From TrEMBL:
Pfam families: Peptidase_M13, Peptidase_M13_N
Protease listed as a keyword: yes
Name this polypeptide is given: Membrane metallo-endopeptidase-like 1
GO CC field: plasma membrane
Swiss-Prot/TrEMBL keywords: Hydrolase, Metal-binding, Metalloprotease, Protease, Zinc
Gene Ontology terms: biological process: protein processing
Residue stretches making up the Peptidase M13 C-terminal domain: 419-576
Top-level taxonomy: Eukaryota, Metazoa, Spiralia, Lophotrochozoa, Mollusca
Length: 587
């Protein structure tokens, strides 16, 4: 990264953005400030920042309609919060975390020329507003029933159900219309266009809450949402401020939206800021994951492994996933609490799961790859502008998918990703090339290690199709109840055991703080299912083989032990225990 240039351009890179938004009031009359109350429009404020994939007040996104997968639809959700968890906002204002948070904003504003005292007052107001908003969001524990997160309205119906405000210049129609008019999208709004409101309680209370705050604070917070995310792209002294804040927060947390758009909080056990090079790798993988992935697979991924994985051959991954699916079906047939009808449909759903292994072939085709990225231009020097461009491109492409057939690869996951996924709307499991490596997998490993590694992950992802949220989708990936009432009741009874068991895990290093058994439920069900299926599949493999695999030379360890050693190794990481609690194990 060209840090000399970054230092030379200093804060000036952010000024065009601040001007476009209409000024950041906290900066007073300094450049980037010059905000005028008379020009205030909540609609424009939100859309201008949404355009750069940042989400003050409303988080809009386009995704498959959960009940009609033939089309894509606009979803509106709450935007989450800057501090990682709701409970952080309950801390007293003089707590180290709150002080560090306010200090961070103050230091950033001072760098742009703000008056310290005014900046501090503004940041306190920002925190007040944010706390009020966090309190009207639906807690994660109550976001596991996906039917309740699917509230369909036409654009015309929005105003009848959700407050608008002349004072703030905000109507739902106006907001959606402006969103669909951002550069490069320009769709005309149709009154009958469908919108899915995800967090309905939040959306109902949003405008009434905002009306309690001055426009200055509403604007300050909206701009803080985007500035806070861009601190890491500014010169080194800004990163130092961020580092000081992260230290106070003990562990670094970020929330990301999974492929299936289920919000998952991941807490990384790191109290320090990531080095520039790591950050740069993340950015390239996040925004240009397919071309980078092309280079990655050419260099690192064994073609032979993929060929075996994709076609019906005795080759390992394909063979292993067949065996694991078989053990899933056997376990299903043994369930005494699930009635016969539900069991039959469950088996059908399991057989319908599509598998994606390694990467999509299209990334090896120059023409297709060029077509996919034809609208992307990267400047060799201007890092900050590149970031804004990529953020905006993401939003434009997302919105364009509402009405046009934008060219996308079928499988848009970066092949270098070290993770695996289950996508409920597609009913498919995905194993990018990045995870098909040690310690999870190696074609020359004994099968015990591979079943204990990638095998347990395959089982984990299959089980996601049947966990407390995945089970709400049918074999086609549509949100639709396919379980009998009796089986649902029984499932809910049984899941209480999981909630209680995991909800009682605690660690002395974290002052006895307990795991949240409800928000980790899906992952815990998947972990348990995964290890059980894979272990049984491994034992079946051994029975078919007729004898145990040959022992590893020099190690007095059985293959059953190796299975569990690799299982543990795959899940192990250096997360600080204080951070681990309340988090969700990967993947
Ligand atoms: Zn999972």
């Amino acid at each position: 990264m060209n840090t000399t240039n970054l230092k030379a351009v200093g804060i000036s890179v952010a000024l065009p953005l601040l001007r476009e938004i209409g000024g950041w009031p906290i900066l007073g009359t300094n450049e980037g400030g010059n905000w005028r109350e008379g020009d205030f429009s909540l609609t424009s404020l939100i859309v201008t920042i949404n355009k750069y994939s940042n989400v003050p007040y409303i988080y809009p996104y386009v995704y498959l309609d959960s009940k009609d997968k033939k089309r894509r639809v606009l979803y509106l959700d709450n935007p989450g919060s800057i501090l990682p968890e709701r409970k952080h906002y309950d801390q007293p204002r003089d707590s180290p975390l709150m002080k560090a948070y306010v200090d961070l904003g103050v230091k950033v504003a001072i760098e742009f020329g703000a008056d310290e005292e005014q900046a501090r007052r503004d940041m306190e107001d920002i925190l007040d507003l944010e706390t009020n908003l966090v309190n009207i969001t639906t807690p994660l524990e109550d976001r596991r029933d996906n039917e309740k997160l699917y509230n369909k309205f036409t654009v015309g119906e929005m105003k009848l159900n959700f407050t608008e405000s002349k004072e703030l210049d905000f109507t739902w129609r106006g907001y959606i219309q402006q969103l669909l008019q951002i550069d490069g999208v320009e769709f005309d709004l149709d009154e009958n266009q469908t919108v899915i409101v995800v967090d309905i309680q939040y959306m109902k209370r949003l405008i009434p809450v905002l009306l309690q705050f001055p426009k200055r604070t509403i604007t300050n917070y909206a701009v803080w949402r985007i500035m806070n995310n861009r601190i890491k792209d500014l010169p080194d002294r800004f990163r130092q401020y961020l580092g000081e804040y992260l230290k106070a927060r003990n562990c670094f947390a970020s929330s990301y939206i999974n492929l299936d758009r289920l919000c998952i909080i991941v807490l990384y056990g790191s109290s320090h800021i990531r080095s520039r090079w790591r950050k740069c790798v993340d950015v390239v993988v996040n925004y240009l994951g397919l071309p980078i992935g092309r280079l990655f697979v050419q260099r690192h991924f064994d073609e032979e492994a993929k060929a075996g994985a994709m076609i019906t051959s005795p080759f390992q991954i394909s063979d292993m996933s067949d065996n694991i699916l078989d053990s899933f079906r056997t376990i299903l047939s043994e369930l005494d609490w699930m009635d016969k009808d539900t069991r039959e449909v469950a088996e059908e759903k399991a057989l319908f799961i599509k598998r994606k292994i390694g990467y999509e072939d299209s990334i090896l085709d120059d023409d297709l790859l060029n077509r996919r990225y034809e609208n992307v231009t990267i400047h060799p020097v201007n890092y900050f502008e590149n970031m804004l461009f990529l953020l905006k491109r993401t939003v434009i492409d997302d919105l364009l998918e509402l009405r046009t057939n934008l060219y996308r690869m079928e499988w848009e996951v970066a092949p270098s990703t070290v993770n695996a996924y289950y996508s409920p709307p597609q009913n498919r499991i995905m194993f990018p090339a990045g995870i098909l490596q040690p310690p999870y997998y190696h074609k020359d490993y004994p099968r015990s290690l591979n079943y204990g590694g990638i095998g347990t992950l395959i089982g984990h992802e299959i089980t996601h199709g049947f966990d407390d949220r995945g089970r709400q989708y049918n074999k086609e990936g549509e949100l639709h109840e396919w379980w009998s009432k009796r089986s649902v009741d029984k499932f809910k009874d049984l899941q209480t055991c999981f909630i209680n068991q995991y909800g009682n895990f605690s660690s002395p290093e974290a002052d006895g703080m307990k795991v949240n058994g409800i928000i980790t439920l899906g992952e815990n069900i998947a972990d348990n299912g995964g290890v059980l299926q894979s272990y049984r599949a491994y034992r079946n493999f051994v029975s078919k083989r007729g004898s145990e695999e040959n022992p590893l030379p020099g190690l007095n360890i059985t293959h059953d032990q190796l299975f569990f050693i690799n299982f543990a190794q795959g899940y192990g990481n250096s997360t600080e225990s204080a951070c681990l609690l309340g988090s969700i194990p990967m993947p």
